[in-house]
Amino acid sequence: MWPESGGDPNTNSELSTILAQAKKAGIPKDLIERAVAKGKGLSTSGEPLQSMTMEAILPPSVAVIVECQTDNKRRTRENIRYIVKQLGGTVGPTTHLFQRRGHVLLDSDILLEEVDVMAKIVETEAVDYDFTEGETSLSIYTEPDQTTSVAQTLSDSLDLTIRSSNMKWIPREELLVKVDNTEDEDRLPISDMISQIEADSDVQAVYHNAVLDTQPSTTMI
After folding, report:
1. Does this model's pTM top 0.90?
2. Helix axes 190-198, 73-86, angle to 10 degrees
3. DSSP reduced 3-state for 64
4. CB burial class (10 A; 0-12, 13-18, 19+) of residue 40?
5. Integer distance in angstroms from the first to the last C-alpha of the chain?
6. Which DSSP string do the residues of 78-112 spell out, in sequence order?
7. CB 2 within 8 A of CB 16
8. What is the sign of the dihedral through the CA atoms of 206, 207, 209 and 210?
9. pLDDT digits (tens, 9 = 90+) for 67-106
10. How far apart are CA 43 and CA 47, in angstroms?
């Protein structure tokens, strides 16, 4: 979804810039229109989109959660099932391997002092945090029902701008799967599998529990 500035390029300068870049890159008009409509939560026909979640296991044993927005759940379900099958995976329950968390990104005009930030964070219901982009941005994880209140509290107390606020699936640390991400004759790298799922136009996000090892494995003699 587009932020509060909305899905109208006449009033949303960020969207207007993105559309200009897309046109310059030669992206087809129908794809641009579909992306704008999806950002408004609508299909190109103007019908509201529905959210749906699919779960699957990809080889060798990587759990994935696929979040979609669609105007036709049956079509989306069949498409994702087909992609997963082509990749050698199976559709099945995986959400128990993840935790549902709220995620907030907050921006500052100045460098953030960790001591001051921590003092404010402990007063909220935040469960984890991290600095990003040279300590001028703050990434916060919360319980799902505390996301809005934590975001507003920290925004007010630290004079920060809320860049985004949404939900994510975070893999349980004790259930992470280390995966060789190099290509072999038996399967694609897991990053390529994820990319193929993300390429479906109804897919909004793909979460997985793989820890990617990009170094080719070696055998000691």
Report:
1. no
2. 160
3. strand
4. middle
5. 54
6. HHHHHHHHHTT-EE---GGGEEEEEEEEEE-SSPP
7. no
8. positive
9. 999 999 999 999 999 999 999 999 999 999 999 999 999 9
10. 5
